[in-house]
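Explain this one:

_____
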Amino acid sequence: MSPTTNVRPTGASSAYQTDQEPADLEYEAGSLGAPNDRQFATTLAKGLEILRCFTPVKPVLGNSALAAKTGLSRPTISRFTYTLCKLGYLRADAATGRYRLGPAVISLGYPMLASIALRQIAKPLMNNVAKALHGSVSMGIRDRLSIVYVETSRSSQAWSAQLSDIGLRYPIASTAIGHAFVAGCDALTRQSLLNEIKVRTPAVWKKHRERLQQAQAEFARKGFCSSYGEQHPDYYAVGVPMGRPVDGELIVFNCVTPQPLASRDSLEKTMGPALVAMIKQLQEMAFMA
């Protein structure tokens, strides 16, 4: 379909700037108690979980909200937030007494991003596909039961919603990029992952298990995995696994397009093959590099 300057998705203009996903909430609800592991540092884990409470929708939180989200007492939260502020991971707003994430969070994540050399090789190819398909192309790796974006390219069209950004996370169970990850795993890892989704997020599993269990077969048949609005009704997507660099994470890519600019036919005949071709070219370039 050809883009027009007045085409917009029918839902929120920035659908990918979300609060916590249902899959995240269900996962966390089942993880509040200390694991049955004597080596597990529960205090450290609780401190780190405070940082995960902040979202694009709720970037500013006070001690009361953090206590409600984590199940920790107000005095405990107060000590954690004080310490995190001293270390630069949070910064306090003197006027409201609430907190935002601090610059140290970015500094903490940068070494990991910098270690993924494939990002620099992939970026020009991702730009070309995003421009040609009037959507976004993103690279992701696994984080718990989600895929987190580590690189992204977006269409420059004036109407284009913010489809993606580095650091955004979306559930493996309900996304094309997540299904591509499942398809790209070896058999043992795939079964372990599906079992974890089933046990840790049973409601998510019940809703998406059929598509999840078919991910490998879909990829074998088409060369990509597809999503027709399962994650967000206004967006269609395809996902392709690239593979696992030596001693690295399994890397996957997706392409997302606003539904008014796509159809099932164009997704299957244009978007999917375009992403597959990009991955093949990228594999050749990465091997040469």
About this structure: The first helix runs from residue 22 to 29. Confidence is low (pLDDT under 50) at residues 1-15. DSSP finds eleven helices and eight strands in the chain.
